[in-house]
Specification:
By secondary structure, the chain is mainly α. The protein is 65% helix and 1% strand.
């Protein structure tokens, strides 16, 4: 069941909310809790009911292991239980997500013909696996109070964030689950949640799905056959996919936050206008925030800390400060960063293109951190440095992200490299003949630029107008506020205000501008839902 489908919007969500209101009137915490658990199981089982058995077994096993870790007093026994939990979760993820990929590589390297039935990837397994692992590690370190079974089930299953995140911490949502039956239903908050939900729906069906159908999929379908696009087609398709992924995931995050708000739950912010980032470090602090938090907290930081301890024990210097050595830079920055981004790339998808994408971002981050270390010495005047570097960093960061998306979308590495070669103009720049009418354009003809009639290319650009529309969407991302910024004073998500301990939502104001804006995006979104087949969110495949 997809958030942007008619069955979810007009069927599932109203029924679940009606049941929530009824159970809420009973003033019973158990009634509210188990109604949401049952609803979330129905939501998950809609795709394939047999995977309900898998998620039920994983929930039961992880709950038992977490209780065993909490109850154990000996460090060795706690570590054994933690190891068992990690093996269970990571092993399950590897089996369902990577078995076929690993088997294909074994067959290629060894010349064997091992065959296994196609394994269907259970939806959301990448996300709820990380969520369960985080809870086990936090339990091991004593950061988790004992959870009741119902609380643990809803922590894993809560349908607004079950399939594609955000990857939540227990401390963020469990206290809210415990108060579900206490708060009076506030219809202003319901309207606010629906407003954010329909903003996300608009971004998904009007922008993301349209970009996929008209600007991205047609070009990449042809390049998969070995054909080479012209210059503007290559730029249009890669830029289009970058924006498709942006609006698709941004739309999902808004819809998840909006749906959760209907039940009085605030989820953490997971997307914060990443194209406004002026560095790749800032980009990863804005794109998929909860994944970045998980990778930093549970992979990068422990690895960096262990390497730092070993280095200091040998009497060597650490990383940071004016006297950082090359050895410290490689050991304490380059290696942990590359290892973490390798895992990030492989987590996102099965294939070498995703690994290259992750390693490419690892290189970006390494260069960015090294540059900051260098820039701190060369430009002591921070304000002047910001004025000079912000516009350069904004454009450079966006260009690096777009280049990496060629690997993220392409079917093979060679296809991605061919696309980047065309985008770089290495084989010359071929433009539609209609652009030759621009004053002075004829002076370029016959040099690095050739003007081709549309019939001589496989012809998707149609005079470059789609590319102009894509440029307009880039300007949209750079200049306009996101949904959380629009509603920032209402604290609609965790992480958007300094004080996130309680949902201190302000009184909502039904101003005519808000009514006009929300009515427009809602009507347009629903019209697209009714006239198009619901497309899955891209992160469902990860």
């Amino acid at each position: 069941m997809v958030f942007s489908s008619s069955i979810f919007i007009f069927g599932f969500l109203p029924v679940v909310y009606l049941g929530f209101l009824i159970s809420h009137q009973l003033k019973s915490r158990s009634a509210v809790l188990y109604w949401l658990i049952a609803s979330s199981l129905c939501f998950y089982g809609w795709w394939n009911p047999r995977y309900l058995i898998l998620i039920a077994v994983l929930i039961g096993a992880n709950f038992g292991i977490s209780r065993a870790i909490a109850a154990a007093t000996a460090v060795r026994r706690r570590k054994c239980w933690l190891t068992l939990g990690l093996v269970l979760n990571i092993g399950t993820l590897i089996y369902y997500k990577y078995t076929n990929f690993l088997l294909d590589n074994v067959n290629t390297l060894a010349g064997t013909h091992l065959v296994i039935d196609t394994i269907v990837l259970p939806l959301g397994i990448s996300f709820f696996t990380f969520q369960k692992i985080a809870l086990l590690i936090d339990t091991y370190h004593g950061r988790v109070q004992t959870l009741a079974f119902g609380e643990y089930c809803l922590f894993v299953l809560f349908f607004p964030q079950l399939i594609a995140g955000p990857i939540v911490h227990h401390s963020e949502v469990v206290p809210q689950f415990r108060r579900l039956h206490e708060h009076r239903v506030n219809w202003d908050h319901v309207v606010l949640g629906l407003s954010i939900f329909f903003i996300g729906l608009f971004k998904k069906v009007v922008f993301a799905d349209t970009l996929a159908a008209e600007d991205v999929n047609p070009v990449f379908a042809v390049t998969a056959t070995g054909a080479v696009p012209i210059f503007l087609e290559a730029w249009g398709s890669v830029l289009g996919y970058t924006l498709e992924l942006y609006f698709d995931f941004s739309g999902y995050c808004d819809m998840a936050i909006g749906a959760a708000m209907l039940f009085g739950i605030r989820l953490p912010q997971n997307f914060n206008s990443p194209f406004k980032a002026a560095s790749i470090i800032e980009f990863w602090g804005r794109w998929h925030l909860t994944l970045t938090r998980f990778l930093t907290s549970y992979i990068y930081n422990p690895l960096n800390l262990e390497l730092t301890r070993r280095r200091l024990a040998k009497g060597k210097k650490g990383y940071g400060g004016k006297h950082t050595t090359i050895g410290a830079l490689i050991t304490l920055l380059v290696f942990p960063t590359m290892a973490t981004m390798f895992i990030s790339g492989f987590w996102h998808g099965v294939g070498y293109t995703f690994i290259v994408w992750g390693l490419l971002h690892g290189i970006y981050l390494t260069i960015n951190h090294s540059w900051r270390l260098f820039a701190h010495r060369q430009w002591p005047d921070k304000q002047r440095y910001q004025r000079l570097m912000w516009p350069i960093g904004l454009v450079l960061t966006f260009a690096c992200v777009v280049a990496s998306m060629a690997f993220f979308r392409a079917h093979t590495i060679s296809e991605a490299l061919a696309m980047l070669r065309v985008m770089s103009g290495a084989d010359g720049i071929q433009l539609p003949v209609v652009l030759e009418r621009i004053p002075g354009a004829h002076l370029l003809s016959g040099r690095a630029v050739n003007f081709l009639p549309e019939g001589e290319a496989y012809g998707h650009i149609h005079g470059g107008r789609p590319l102009l529309a894509i440029v307009g969407l880039v300007a949209w991302c750079w200049l306009l506020p996101n949904a959380q910024q629009i509603f920032s004073r209402f604290q609609t998500a965790l992480g958007t205000q300094d004080n996130d301990k309680a949902p201190a939502w302000a009184q909502f104001s039904y101003a005519w501008r808000w009514v006009t804006f929300i009515s427009t995006v809602t009507v347009m979104g629903l019209l697209y839902v009714q006239t198009n087949i619901a497309q899955e969110f891209l992160y469902f495949d990860f």
